[in-house]
Every structure is written in C-alpha cells, then in structure tokens.
Write a structure and sequence with these properties.
mainly alpha, Helix Hairpins
C-alpha cells in the first residue's frame, strides 16, 4: 500500500469512528455549499479552504494523539490526561479561528440578503 493509501485508510477510519470528525465533514460540505452560493472571491475561497484545512488537520492530529495516548497509557494517568487536554485545546483554537474567518466572510453576505 502506498502512502496515499495509508492516508486514505486513516481518513476513512477517523470519519467512521469519530463523532467530531463526522461533524467537521458535514460542516465542510455546508461551508463549501455556502461558498458556491455566495460566489466567493478567490481570496475568500483561500481563507475558507485554509480554515477547513486547519480544522481537519488539528482534528486528525488530536485523534491520532488520543489513540497513541490510549495505547501507551491504557489506565488513567494524569500526564496522559494533560496530553489529551492540550491536543483538544489545539482543536478548540483552530475552531475559534475558523469560525471567526467564516463569520467575517459570510455574515455580511447573509445580512445583505
């Protein structure tokens, strides 16, 4: 199997097993639909795609960190909990930034309807 094959396998595993990633999948479809509906500029598209990429990347890395942490520390461990919390904080930060970009781009267009 090639690197692309392994990456596809990982993405399918994440979508199949992780609620938050399924949420991001649905949100991605919705945001792309809105982007087409509002006929975004090239610059707006770039910011939207970067935000989507940021969210997916942090969520997938968070999931990988959670799997690895559970593997190396199956019982409760305070330090393992901190690792998971910090990884989740990265997702939260990415979500705040991405939502802010979305609001900046879409809110004026929605209010102008």
């Amino acid at each position: 199997m090639s690197g692309f094959g392994y990456a596809s396998k990982g993405l399918i595993e994440a979508i199949r097993t992780q609620f938050n990633i399924r949420f991001h999948f649905a949100a991605t479809i919705g945001v792309i639909a809105l982007a087409f509906y509002f006929d975004l500029t090239v610059t707006e598209w770039c910011f939207i795609l970067l935000s989507i990429g940021l969210m997916w990347t942090t969520e997938l890395l968070n999931t990988a960190i959670e799997y690895l942490t559970d593997f190396v520390s199956p019982e409760f461990n305070e330090l393992a909990g901190k690792v998971k919390d910090i990884a989740a904080a990265a997702v939260l930060l990415a979500a705040i930034v991405s939502a802010s970009v979305g609001l900046i781009i879409f809110m004026p267009k929605i209010l102008a309807l």
